[in-house]
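Archive maintenance. Older records in this collection stored only the sequence; we are now back-filling the structure field for every entry so that each record is complete. The fields below show one back-filled record exactly as it appears after the update. Entries are processed alphabetically, and MPN domain-containing protein is next in the queue.

ARCHIVE ENTRY
Title: MPN domain-containing protein
Organism field: Cotesia glomerata
Length field: 94
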Amino acid sequence: MLTHPTQTAFLSSVDLHTHCAYQFMMSEAIAIVCAPKCEETGYFTLTEHGLNFISRCRESGFHPHPNEKSLYTHAQHCKFESTADVKVIDLRAK
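Back-filled structure field:
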């Protein structure tokens, strides 16, 4: 899960690189981006082009990527169910 406290829900270059590793291990992996200021949550997956492109990109940190072809898209294979009983537990050391 990624958070953009002051921006909209999208995948930044850092997000793309982080998610790429997960999606290579598990093709159904999704990137969830919370944008609290915009009251928006996005569920994304890399396109085939995006997966191939990002896996070959050697830049680090925030950097531009070309946008002539979409690198990611909304994850169509997941649904948000507002009535589901979900419990979020923070397992970090206190």
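Update note: The two ends are 20 Å apart (CA to CA). The first strand starts at residue 2 and ends at 3.
Entry marked complete.
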